[in-house]
Amino acid sequence: MSIISDKVRINEKIRGRELRIISETGEQLGIMSAMEALEVAVQKELDLVEISPNATPPVCKIMDYGKYKYEQTRKAKDAKKNQKQVIVKEVKFRARIDQHDMDTKIAQVKKFLEKDNKVKITLVQYGRERMYADQGIGMLDQISDRFVEIADVDKKYNDKQKYLILSPKK
C-alpha cells in the first residue's frame, strides 16, 4: 500500500522543467513548465501526478491523487485475494511400518490431496535401515501406485533422502 506513495511524485515534488501534461479526461494539454502545470491542477482542485518519469519530457496527469491511490490499493488487495497459495504437507514413513499405521497415514494423505494441497511423503531411515533402502523404496513405490489416479507423482530417490511429491490432478 505504501509502495505507491513512495515511487510516485506529486505536485511540488515533480522535478522536471518541462512536462507533458494530460488532463483528467485523458486529453493532451501539451508541454508546459512545472509551475504552469501546477497552476492548472490547482485551478481544477486536483493534483499533478508524475506518471512516466523516464520519458522525455516526463509525463504528468492531472487527477485526484487520493482516489488514484485508493484504487491502486484496492487492485492490489483484489489481486492478492485471487492468488492461491500452494501448501506442501509432509507425511513421514518408516520402512518397517505396520499395515494399520500405513493405512492411517495414507488416509491422511488422501485428505490433504482432496483439499488441493501438495503432499511430500518422506522415507525416514535410521541406523541399519539405510543398508536396506530397497525395502523403503519398494514401500514408496506401493504408495505411489495407490495415488496414480488422483495425483501426479514425482519420485526422488537421492543418496540420503528418498521421497515422493504428490500433487493433486486438476
Distance between the termini: 34 Å
The third-level CATH topology of the largest domain is: Translation Initiation Factor IF3
Query: Into which percent range does the helicity of residues fall?
Result: 25-40%
By DSSP, the count of extended strands is 8
N-to-C order of helices and strands? HEEHEEHEHEHEE
CATH class of the largest domain: Alpha Beta
Strand content is: 25-35%
Mean pLDDT reading: 86
CATH architecture of the largest domain: 2-Layer Sandwich
**Total count of domains:** 2
**How is the largest sheet built, in terms of strand order?**
2-1-4-3
How many whole angstroms does the radius of gyration measure? 30 Å
Low-confidence spans: none
CATH homologous superfamily title of the largest domain: Translation initiation factor 3 (IF-3), C-terminal domain
What structural class is derived from the secondary structure elements? alpha/beta
Family: Belongs to the IF-3 family.
InterPro entries: T_IF-3_C_sf, T_IF-3_N_sf, Translation_initiation_fac3_CS, Translation_initiation_fac_3, Translation_initiation_fac_3_C, Translation_initiation_fac_3_N
Subunit structure: Monomer.
Function: IF-3 binds to the 30S ribosomal subunit and shifts the equilibrium between 70S ribosomes and their 50S and 30S subunits in favor of the free subunits, thus enhancing the availability of 30S subunits on which protein synthesis initiation begins.
